[in-house]
């Protein structure tokens, strides 16, 4: 079946593709390092390709070539940026729509803003998929520089009502397209109850960076051990804070109960969730953490800080237990509570499983395809082909 352009209303300068495909340029990072945006970029690319859509990736964290350039601090970003801009220009001439993953800070200025301007200059429609949990702070500080680029987006998509509200305060309309979780990979273990109430296994899936509140989590876990001496904590992730966190665990006397797994593959992470009893999200800043979706899909009760977009994802006492950030006492109290009250444990797990179906592949990917087709000027019925 050949795609047909709408007679009017198209903002694309591309002719009807001769092949039976939709051409999408995807701009974003890939692991390593693992992280929410990198994982979502990889997952979306794989899912679109599996549906017969032609995806051309423009990777913002391409390895340095040659490798020795990466050792030249201060100037190594220049050749990488030049190669990135050159690839963007080539891809913008070849696709029907550009999808740009975006974050705050220097990532915005170096990668997202150039992509928006290049798409605009080439008259190719562009979806700005903004995902930064620190958006408001960034906009307050930099909006006069950011606004001209934002205005070049054909559509701004955000993964949560939290970011939609932030953009609204600065006068921008957005479309909410949530993150995706693979419900076939992340699935519950057969029994939705802890192996033993005195030996709960708590899991954290965050990069080892200060904004994710891991020092608070260790202090909360030390308090949990007073009530449940057999408890275990697995922290899955990598990052610059690892040595500091390992030293803190030893200083708190909990080193033998804490495991730092390092970075895990998606399949390894899914298996770790199935071995655990509770998922803890101690972050101080966040938008729409994938770890919460993965934890719910794995049948785990969630204890999380109520920051950023988290309260838009889960409801306190129904699908999660929410606590203030940087409060180890409150965090520990809820961990003790959920691993002691089996009725609460089962209720949170079952409600989470029901809620997370909204974020499955079959619910979200068709929404992206509809957006691409609409921006590229194709008949809406054609989106059902993918």
CATH architecture of the largest domain: 3-Layer(aba) Sandwich
User: Which strand order do you get reading across the main beta sheet?
Assistant: 2-1-3-4-5-6
Total number of distinct structural domains? 2
Can you summarize the main beta sheet? Answer: 6 strands, parallel
CATH topology-level fold name of the largest domain: Rossmann fold
Tell me the number of strands. Answer: 12
CATH class of the largest domain: Alpha Beta
Please give the count of helices.
13
- Low-confidence segments, ≥5 residues, pLDDT <50? 1-18
Quote the beta fraction.
5-15%
The Cα radius of gyration reads: 22 Å
Helicity level, as a percent range?
40-55%
Mean pLDDT value = 90
Note the overall shape: globular
Q: What can you see in these coordinates?
A:
The protein has 386 residues and is of the alpha/beta class. The chain folds into 2 domains: 23-180 and 360-385, Glycogen Phosphorylase B (Rossmann fold); 201-358, Rossmann fold (3-Layer(aba) Sandwich). It has helices at residues 36-50, 77-92, 106-121, 135-150, 161-169, 214-227, 242-251, 266-275, 290-297, 310-313, 328-338, 342-356, 361-376, and strands spanning 23-28, 54-59, 97-102, 126-130, 155-158, 175-176, 201-205, 232-236, 258-262, 278-281, 302-305, 321-323. A 6-stranded parallel sheet has the order 2-1-3-4-5-6, with helices on both faces. The radius of gyration is 22 Å and the shape is globular.
